[in-house]
Design a protein that fits this description.
6-stranded mixed β-sheet, alpha+beta, 36 strands, 623 residues, 2 domains, 4-stranded antiparallel β-sheet, Methylamine Dehydrogenase, Chain H
Length: 623
């Protein structure tokens, strides 16, 4: 852990840097803003520590300041949850950048004991260990579950199988009572399949945007990504028993709604910890620095932990200066929860990318900074975290791919380089990096998409976060098409409102290039191909839709007033069902709502009603 003696030169250097930053703003004191002076682990009331000072330099990976690097097919967006501590003191490491799954031995000198190489763009993600010690890994890109015996010394002896489950698998859990795996899919499918691969799978369709599956002794909980909703489902057939949303709160800095549940894990208490964001409901001033939050507790996007207990969700503290909270792990001592470790992937330089929150802090002050983890090897580009049974903290990093084992009490660490090709990509780095206001592009555009939040901007009104997949090559940008290029967009939003560092044109080009590789979500599975065909005829004919929604992106890249009072950019229709609410102000909570004049506008194509509207919606859902 970082001591005051070690912190002093770091704070001195940081304050020297901030003298070169832009105009002073009201922010949390340096002890919280930098995260380097808090060593006690005690909860801190951030509102009592407001001072006038410049914002800190954003914690970029240092390579962002060099020549721009672009990959032909850039690394996938960060999702977290790719590290699993096994019962035998080994680690399963899923590396979506290089499409590898590795078993790492941690006793003695850490080493890779087994490595599986998957097909390109398989994108291994969440993993689970079953009752017999076999492991099962979700392959997000190929729509499969990879299963094998991690105790084998050779791949030939690992009994490797791959089973198709759905087009966009995300979370996975294991139910000991039925010896079944439960896989949650972004499209809404909840898939039950035998752990040994014998017998048929069963699929139940729930709401779209499913994320994690957490199985406890008495319940199965499935989270939804953008809404931070917890669905308590029947462990036999998956039907929803009850549902709970993490509550909206006002912690003294404004009203905020729960959003983007990055990770959910089981706790030894039988409860579930959900790591998610809160996003401001109050008015936001879209001016330079308007997306502020320079101390981490007063921004428009905040990181937080909520606890699912029974049928209720209780609110935890805001995590100060934690940008992009992608993963969490629980440390258990004598059967009790001792602490939680959180990865803030936006804090890329490693100085405060991983921090520990003690159990008492979870019920303490509304804002806490925890204790930041420091090692002799900075935890640069941390993406996932786990605790071994002996209390050591394991941190997975990317670009380069590594595992760092940290003994917290001693402040010592061991590093294992996992090899594989270099996956550093300038655009990927910019997208995930914290700006000076403790917010990253990926905070509002998680995994390259959007958070589903409707913001209230002063002078603009309600504005829904737009999706960024398919954004490359669709200039002009922004809701009203008022930004002519990606460079203009970056300067207005990333540099101006987010207080990010100024970028060179080559860096902006790298960002646009990486966005062009972000995959769009798969289309909704049609229930009637005949209805889809009829809907396409309406779309291309009498509905008048192709007048604006044309070309590869189904957009003419122009702004139109469809009867809403202002001209707005024509959005792409690709992956439409995964982006509700729709329209610039989010007035369409469902796709059908778009076709009401009060929401969709009176000049938004020809009027379509009845069965014809059903057919048109079926076609739109298939895109």
């Amino acid at each position: 852990m970082l001591t005051p003696k070690l912190a002093a030169p770091l704070v001195s250097r940081a304050l020297h840097r901030t003298r070169r930053a832009r105009a002073s703003r009201l922010v949390i004191a340096a002890a919280l803003a930098l995260g380097w002076l808090v060593t006690t682990g005690e909860a801190v009331d951030a509102r009592a520590m407001m001072v006038e000072m410049p914002p800190p330099i954003p914690p970029f990976d240092a390579r962002i300041h060099g020549a721009a690097v672009s990959r032909d097919a850039g690394p996938p967006p960060i999702s977290g949850g790719t590290l699993l501590a096994l019962r035998d003191e080994r680690l399963l490491v899923a590396d979506p950048d290089t499409d590898r799954v590795m078993i790492v031995a941690t006793n003695g000198e850490p080493r890779v004991a087994l490595e599986l190489r998957e097909a390109a763009h398989s994108e291994p993600g969440r993993a689970i260990e079953d009752g017999e010690g076999r492991v099962h890994v979700v392959l997000r890109g190929s729509g499969q579950v990879l299963s094998f015996d991690p105790r084998a010394s050779r791949i030939e002896d690992a009994n490797v199988t791959r089973r198709a489950v759905c087009s966009m698998p995300r979370g996975i859990g294991f139910d000991r009572t039925s010896d079944r795996l439960i896989v949650a899919c972004r499209g809404g499918e909840l898939v039950f399949l035998p752990s040994r691969g014998e017998g048929a799978a069963r699929t139940t369709r729930l709401d779209a945007d499913l994320r994690d599956v957490v199985v406890t002794d008495d319940r199965v909980v499935v989270t939804r990504f953008r809404s931070a909703e917890a669905l308590i489902v029947d462990r036999t057939d998956g039907h929803v028993i009850s549902r709970r949303n993490a509550p909206s709160v006002n912690d003294g800095t404004g009203n905020a709604s729960a959003a983007v549940a990055w990770r959910a894990i089981a706790l030894p208490t039988g409860e579930i910890a959900m790591l998610h964001q809160r996003e401001r409901d109050d008015e936001v001033i879209p001016a330079p620095g308007g997306y502020g939050g320079f101390g981490g507790c007063d921004g428009i996007v905040k990181s937080t932990l909520s606890i699912v207990s029974g049928d209720q969700i209780r609110t935890g503290p805001t995590l100060a200066a934690a940008t992009l909270p992608v993963d969490v792990a629980a440390r258990v001592t004598n059967g009790q929860l001792a602490s939680l470790a959180v990865v803030a992937a936006g804090n890329q330089n490693g100085d405060h990318s991983v921090f520990v929150v003690s159990s008492p802090e979870l019920a303490g002050a509304p804002c806490t900074s925890g204790s930041f983890v420091s090692t002799q090897h900075a935890l640069t580009n941390a993406v996932a975290v786990g605790f071994l049974a002996d209390g050591r903290l394991a941190v997975q990093t990317r670009a380069p791919s590594r595992v760092v084992l940290v003994t917290l009490e001693q402040g010592s660490s061991r590093e294992l380089a996992l090899g594989g090709e270099d996956t550093f990509d300038t655009g990927h780095t910019i997208f995930h990096a914290a700006g000076g206001g403790h917010i990253a592009c990926a905070s509002c555009h998680p995994e390259g998409g959007e958070d589903g939040h409707v913001w209230r901007f002063s002078g603009l009104g309600a504005r829904r976060t737009p999706a960024l997949h398919d954004a490359a090559g669709t200039a002009p940008f922004h809701w009203q098409g008022d930004l002519a290029s990606m460079e203009a967009l970056v300067n207005e939003v990333f540099v101006g409102r987010m207080n990010g560092v100024a970028l060179q044109p080559t860096h902006v080009a790298a960002l646009e290039g990486w966005l062009g590789h972000v995959p769009r979500p798969s289309a909704h599975t049609a229930t009637s191909e005949a209805s889809v065909a009829r809907g396409r005829t309406i779309f291309e004919g009498s509905g008048g839709c192709v007048a604006c929604h044309s070309g590869a992106h189904l957009s003419d890249n122009q702004s139109h007033d469809v009867g809403t009072g202002q001209a707005f950019q024509t959005p792409t229709l690709r992956g439409l069902t995964h982006r509700v609410p729709l329209m610039h102000d989010g007035c369409a909570r469902t796709l059908r709502d778009r076709f009401t004049p009060t929401c969709g506008g009176e000049r938004h194509g020809a009027a379509v009603e009845g069965e014809s509207l059903d057919d048109l919606i079926a076609y739109l859902e298939s895109l």
